Amino acid sequence: METQNPRREAAVGTAGCLTAFAGALAGLALWAPYGKDGLLDGFEGATNWDVVRYGLPLMVIGGVAAALAVFAALRGRKLWALGLVAAVAGLVAIGDAVDALAGPPRPECSDPC
């Protein structure tokens, strides 16, 4: 299969990879406060490893999908962008279902702590 302009396709492919990498970094940056709270700020040393097990992959994959959705929309690929937005919505639903970004348990107290 011969391409029309291989340099342009290479540039678009490189831009897509850089966009995906930037999305992964954004997902990691958005996950970091939850990860810190889930691992270090627990009551009596309690940690929530689900934040790492489920939250980290969901946030990184969601960041990649969201960035590629924007990239596809800017390139005029509406069906690809719509599919990626649906994937992000699915990841949000999964994350909400497994409570992936919940922090560690907090102490119960009757008076203001």
Comma- or semicolon-separated keywords:
113 residues; mainly alpha; 3 helices
Write the SSE topology.
Blueprint: H1 6-40, H2 50-74, H3 78-98
Helix pairs in contact: 1-2, 2-3
What does this structure look like?
With 113 residues, the protein is mainly α. 72% of the residues lie in helices and 0% in strands. The chain contains 3 helices and no strands. It has helices spanning 6-40, 50-74, 78-98. Helix 1 runs antiparallel to helix 2 and helix 2 packs antiparallel against helix 3. The model has no long low-confidence stretch (mean pLDDT 85).
Question: What's a concise summary of this model?
Answer:
This protein is an all-alpha fold and 113 residues long. Helix content is 72%, strand content 0%. It is elongated, with a radius of gyration of 19 Å.
Helix content: over 70%
Which sequence of SSEs, written as H and E, runs from N to C? HHH
Number of helices: 3
Given helix and strand content, the structural type is mainly alpha
What is the CA-CA span between the terminal residues? 68 Å
Q: Can you give the mean pLDDT?
A: 85
Query: Rg, please?
Result: 19 Å
Number of strands: 0
Overall form: elongated
Beta content comes to under 5%
Question: Which regions contain 5 or more consecutive residues with pLDDT less than 50?
Answer: none
Largest sheet: none
